[in-house]
Amino acid sequence: MKTISKGEMRSGKIIFITGGAKSGKSSFALKKASAIPGGKAFIATAEALDKEMRERIEQHKKQRGKDWDTYEEPLNIGGLVRIIGNKYNVIVLDCLTLWLSNLMHAGLKIDDAVSEFKNALGDFGEKGQTSAIYIVSNEVGMGIVPENEMARRFRDAAGILNQTIAEVADDVYMLVSGIPLKIKEKVRSGTEYH
């Protein structure tokens, strides 16, 4: 694992990337993050619960290559971000909706986990966490209303989670058919947005 030396440039930005399934979110995040020199970490929230998912995870690891250190963390992403935040120049977290699903299946309090993660992200600007972090999530509320209660709770929680992270992010992109649309950009000298 390559640690950051004092002389290396780091952006300290939070970049949130959302969009539909297979819209190109993860590829976009990896492409942008790969352009940043220095140590790279990938936080995977997916769990290898079946053969297809195990194969998918292995394929994704091969695509990232050896430049990336992979951390598999299905539940405590806030704690992990606090631990590795200053050890890498860039972190990609993929993805929040799988994390949310993991929290729901584990019976954990979603509000507490989201609050802890939001606080960990706040440390990037306030307590010296200076790595750039790309956070990937799915936009799940643009279709029909789900027919069952659990699916509706998931959709609503994902929408609130995405709003929460978009609020603290410096930049927000929405991917549509592989095309990134920047929908928020924080001006570094103030709090204005274009």
Broad shape: globular
Question: How would you characterize the largest beta sheet?
Answer: 7 strands, mixed
CATH architecture: 3-Layer(aba) Sandwich
The fourth-level CATH homologous superfamily is P-loop containing nucleotide triphosphate hydrolases
What helical percentage do the residues reach? 40-55%
Q: Explain this structure to me?
A:
The chain has helices at residues 25-34, 51-64, 77-84, 96-106, 110-126, 149-168; strands spanning 14-19, 40-44, 68-72, 90-94, 132-138, 171-176, 179-185. The model is unreliable at 1-10 and 190-194 (pLDDT under 50). The protein is 41% helix and 21% strand. It contains 6 helices and 7 strands, in the order βαβαβαβααβαββ. The chain is α/β, with parallel strands linked by helices and 194 residues long.
List keywords for this structure.
Rossmann fold, single chain, alpha/beta, seven-stranded mixed beta sheet, 6 helices, disordered N terminus
Describe this structure in a few short sentences.
With 194 residues, this protein is of the alpha/beta class. Helix content is 41%, strand content 21%.
Please describe the topology of this protein.
Layout: E1 14-19, H1 25-34, E2 40-44, H2 51-64, E3 68-72, H3 77-84, E4 90-94, H4 96-106, H5 110-126, E5 132-138, H6 149-168, E6 171-176, E7 179-185
Parallel strand pairs: 1-5, 1-6, 2-3, 2-4, 4-5
Antiparallel strand pairs: 6-7
